[in-house]
Amino acid sequence: MANPVQTLQGMRDWLPGRSRLRAWIISRIRENFERSGFEPVETPALEYAETLKGKYGEEADKLIYAFTDRGGREVGLRYDLTVPLARVVASHPDLSRPFKRYHIAPVWRAERPQRGRYREFTQCDIDVVGVPGELADADVLFTVMACLVDLGLPGFVVRLNDRRLLQAIVARLGIAPNRALGLFRALDKLDKIGTAGVRAELMERGFSGAEIDGLFGFLIPRGDPSIILPELGRTLGGREDAAAAIASLGRLVSALAGLGIASDRLQVDPTLVRGLDYYTGCIYEVTVVEPAIGSLVGGGRYDDLIGIFTGRPTPATGGALGLDRIIDVIEALGLAPAGMQGPVAPVQMTIFSEETLATSLRVAGNLRRAGIACDLAIAGGRLSNQLRDAARRGVRWSVIAGPDEIEQGKLLVRDMVSGEQTALSEADAGEFLRGQL
Amino acid sequence: MANPVQTLQGMRDWLPGRSRLRAWIISRIRENFERSGFEPVETPALEYAETLKGKYGEEADKLIYAFTDRGGREVGLRYDLTVPLARVVASHPDLSRPFKRYHIAPVWRAERPQRGRYREFTQCDIDVVGVPGELADADVLFTVMACLVDLGLPGFVVRLNDRRLLQAIVARLGIAPNRALGLFRALDKLDKIGTAGVRAELMERGFSGAEIDGLFGFLIPRGDPSIILPELGRTLGGREDAAAAIASLGRLVSALAGLGIASDRLQVDPTLVRGLDYYTGCIYEVTVVEPAIGSLVGGGRYDDLIGIFTGRPTPATGGALGLDRIIDVIEALGLAPAGMQGPVAPVQMTIFSEETLATSLRVAGNLRRAGIACDLAIAGGRLSNQLRDAARRGVRWSVIAGPDEIEQGKLLVRDMVSGEQTALSEADAGEFLRGQL
To answer: In chain B, what residues touch A75 (CB-CB under 8 Å)?
Structure first.
C-alpha cells in the first residue's frame, strides 16, 4: 500500500523560497515587537483540553483539535496563543507587571479550509497583562501597526470598536445580558452574510423585529473616529455605560495619534464584534482593501479571561497578526524583497577531481568558518556539469581548484553571471567574496 | 471548578530570559545551516498517521501522539522531522537534487519524561537528499559540528558507526537478517542498561549464548578512527560487506578532516546502533562529557526511507541537533551570552503627568521608529515609582519629559546605573541612545 504523500487538508508545506520569505517576515515582526519592549514567551502546542475549552465561544470550541492521550488525559492543540498566556500568567505569579510578552507560533483549528483560512496557521501575538488603561491598548495597537508599516503593506485600515459600546446598545434595546452573546455571534457574520443574513439569524435566535430594527438603528456605518465617536455620543451618550465606552475609544484614538499613527489608518466601526467570547473592552481588526482575504490583525481587551485561571481580576489586552494572511498579501502584492528565490548560499565550491578533493574541502570549510555561505558540489561529476547546475540554481560565484590552480597556489573565482574568472590566493578569494556579499 | 494552570507533563513554558536564550541559539544554528547551503523547509505538525507509522520501529511507533480527527481521519503529531521530509520529497518531485534542507521545529513523543527527555522538544535537522556518497554525510556532520563549535560547547565527541558494519557482524555470526533488528534494539540500550542488561535482553529475544559471546567479541571499545578502523579491518575485513563499510567510514573520516574537523572530535564506536529502524549506512551521535544528558546530535544515512513514499530508490542522509538538550548544556555550563536576563528594551520612556503624556508618546513612537527598543511606562503612577520599577527590571536608560524639560525643548536621559541625568534635545537624545546600544 502506497503511503500518502499529501498534507492534511488546510495544512501546508513551506518550500525554500516561501519559507525564507516567511522567516524574513517573522524577523521583521519580532524586531518590531522587541522595539516596543515586548518579551518572548513560548508555550507547548498541547494543553489540557479543559484549559482551552469554554473560553472562545460555543462554535469555536468545536474547532479545537482535542483527543485523549495514551495516559488517559483529555488534551488539545492550542486554538490561539491568548488562552495559553492566561494559563502562563496564572502558573507564574512572580512575573512582574506590566507583563508585556510576544509569542509567534502555530495554532490549529479544524475549520473548513478556504482562501486565507488554514487549519494550521501562525499567529504573532503581543499582549500586556496588568494594565487597565487605554495606554496599554494603544501600545499593542501601535506595535502591530508598526509591523505592517515595516513590511510595506499599503492601504491597511484599523476597524475599531468596543464591546462595552455593543453591550450598551443591547442594554438600551432592553435585551437581557444573557442574550447578548447570541446577538454578537450573529452580528459577527455581517461581513460574510450581509445585513439580511444577520437579520435572519437574529430572528432564528429569537430576537424580535423591533429589537433587530433597533439594533441596526444604532449600527451606523464605520468611518473617521472624529465623526463617528461624536455621532455615537449624540445617539447613545445619554447612557453612562455608552458614554464611558465612547470616551475610552476617544482616549485610545488620541494615544495612537500621540504615538504617531496617521489618523486615516483608523476607523470606528460600531458593527465590529470579533468572534471570541473573552473580549471585554476595545476590539479591533486590520484589513487591507486588496486582496480580499479577511482581517490580518485582530485584538482587543479581555479583562476577565486571566481571572478564570488566577481567581483574581487581571486586566489584559492584546493583538495578533495572522502571519499566513500577511504572507498571502505580500505575495499577492509583490512586496517580497528580492533574492528570496535564489539559493541561500551565493557561493559554490566545485570539486575538480578525486586528486583535488582535499583542497576543495579545505576551502569550503574555511569559507564557511569565515561566515561566507558556501555550498559544496557533493554530487561530484564533471566540472562543467557542476557549473551548469550552479548557474541553473542561481549561484552567484563558483570557486574552482583544479590541478593548475593548486600548483600556482591559487583559486579561480567565477562570476556566474558574466562568466568571468579571476585567479586569487585563498585569502584574497575569501576577502573578495566577503566584499561581494 | 478551577482551570488547570500547569503544562502537561514533559512539556514546558519558556519565560522571557530562557526564551531569548533559545532564540539566540536557534539563530546561531540557522546561520550555520545556511552557511553550508542548507535551505529552509517547513511542514505541518499534524500528518496522516499512516505517514508516520512503520518508519521508526515498533517501540517508537507507540510513542506517536495519534488520534482520530473530527473528519474521521487518523492523524498524528510528527515524531521527528525526517519522515515529513521524506513525504515532502515525494510530494514535490520537481525539487532539484541534491536537495539540502534544514527544518527547526518541535516534535512530540509520549515518552516517560526524565532529565533531558521531554514530550515536546525541538529538533534542528539538516538533510541531503539525492547523493549516495560520503561527501554528503560529511557535509551534514561538518555542519552540525560547526553549530556546536559556534555555540561554544567544549569537549563534545562524535561517536561514529555504520549500520552495514553491524549487519556484517550479524552475518558473520550466522544470524538471519530478519533477526538483526531485534539484536539492534537490545544493543541500542547498552548505555542505559550495560553489557549485562543487553546480554539478558538478547537471551530473552532468543539469541544463543554463543551468538551473544560472538557479538561482544566484535564490539571493541570505541576510539580514534585511525586505531579502530584498522582493528575492525583485521577482525572483519575478510568479509566484503564489512570491508566496504569500514572503507566508507574511512572516507567519511577523511572528508571531515579535509573540511577542517579536528581528529580528536571523532571516535568510531562499533556498539553504536541509533534506535530508529530507517538507517542504512553511517550513523552517529554527539555527546558531551558534562552534564550527563544523552546525545545532543543524532543522525545517519537512510537510503530506503524516501523510497517508501516515492517508489524509487532515493539516497538521503541527515543529522538532527536536539535544541532542548543543547539549551540544558549551555545553561549547565554557564555558556549563555550576557544580557539575556535583562529586558529586551534597554530604554524606557517615562510619563510625568497627564499634561506631558503627548510628549512622552511622541518620543516613544519616534525612538521606536528609529530602531531603538523603547518601553513606555504604560502603568503610569509617580515618576519615582516608574524609575524604581525600571531599575528593578534592569532598564539601562530612562527618558524623562517633565514640564520644565518640555519648556526648554529638552529631554532628560537618565543613566539607570550611575543615576546621572543629561538634558538633550529629542534629536540628540535619539543619537545618544543609538550610540550607546
So the answer is: 8
**pLDDT in the model for residue B2:** 57
B35 contacts A374 by C-beta, under 8 angstroms: yes
As a whole number, mean pLDDT of residues A133-140 equals: 98
Domain end position, chosen among A281, A297, A332:
A332
Instruction: Judge if B148 and B273 occupy the same domain.
Output: yes
What percent of chain A stands above pLDDT 70? 100
Total count of domains within chain B? 2
Based on the fold, state whether residues B30 and B158 are members of the same structural domain. Answer: yes
Q: Is residue B11 part of a domain?
A: no
Q: Are residues B72 and B193 in the same domain?
A: yes
Are residues A294 and A147 located together in one domain of the fold?
A: yes
Given a cut of 50, is residue A1 above it in pLDDT? Answer: no
Task: Count other Cβ atoms within 10 Å, centred on residue A27.
Answer: 11
Grid cell digits, residue B257 = 578532516
The per-residue pLDDT for range A245-291, each reduced to its tens digit, is 999 999 999 999 999 998 899 999 999 999 888 999 999 999 998 88
Rounded to whole angstroms, how far apart are CA atoms B99 and B93? 11
Among A48-62, A156-170, A181-195, B328-342, the range with the most confident prediction by mean pLDDT is A156-170
CA distance B25 to A131: 32
A259 closest CB neighbour out of B5, B361, B380: B361
Q: Is A92 within 8 Å of B13 when comparing Cβ atoms? A: yes
- The answer to whether A399 and A386 have CB atoms below 8 angstroms apart is no
In a domain, B43, yes or no: yes
Residue B78 has pLDDT above 50, yes or no: yes
Rounded mean pLDDT of chain A?
95
Regarding whether A198 and A248 lie in a shared domain, the answer is yes
Distance in Å, alpha carbon of B133 to nearest chain A alpha carbon: 8
Looking only at the bridges linking them, the beta strands covering A282-288 and A156-162 are antiparallel
Could you give phi then psi for residue B63, rounded to 5 degrees? -90, 0
pTM > 0.90: yes or no: yes
Same domain, B117 and B152: yes
CATH of the domain at B103: 3.30.930.10
Residues A103 and A43 in one domain: yes
| Residue A339 included in any domain | no
pLDDT for the residue numbered A2:
56
Interface test with B, best of A24, A33, A42, A109 (most B CBs within 10 A): A42
CB-count exposure of residue B151 (10 Å: 0-12, 13-18, 19+): buried
pLDDT tens digits for range B168-225: 999 999 999 889 889 998 999 998 899 999 999 999 999 999 999 999 999 999 999 9
Chain B CB contacts of A366 below 8 Å = 260
Nearest chain A residue to B309 by CA: give it.
A3
Compare CB distances from A366 to B22, B88, B260 and report the shortest one's residue: B260
Query: Which residues of chain B lie closer than 8 angstroms to A369, CB-CB?
Result: 146, 260
Examine residue A218 and state whether it is found in any structural domain, yes or no.
Answer: yes
Residue B228 CA to its chain's centroid (Å):
29
Which of B36, B351, B368 is nearest residue A368 as measured by Cβ atoms? B36
- Alpha helix positions (H), A205-239: 209-218, 225-236
Cell 549506512: give the residue: B281
Owning domain of residue B416? 347-436
Question: HSE (CB half, 13 Å, CA atoms) of A327?
Answer: 22
ipTM: 0.95
Q: How far is A432 from chain B (nearest CA, A)?
A: 17
Do B178 and B109 share a domain, yes or no? yes
Given A281, A306, A332, the domain boundary residue is A332
- B121/chain A closest Cα distance in angstroms: 9
CA distance A381 to chain B (A): 11
Mean pLDDT of A45-60: 92
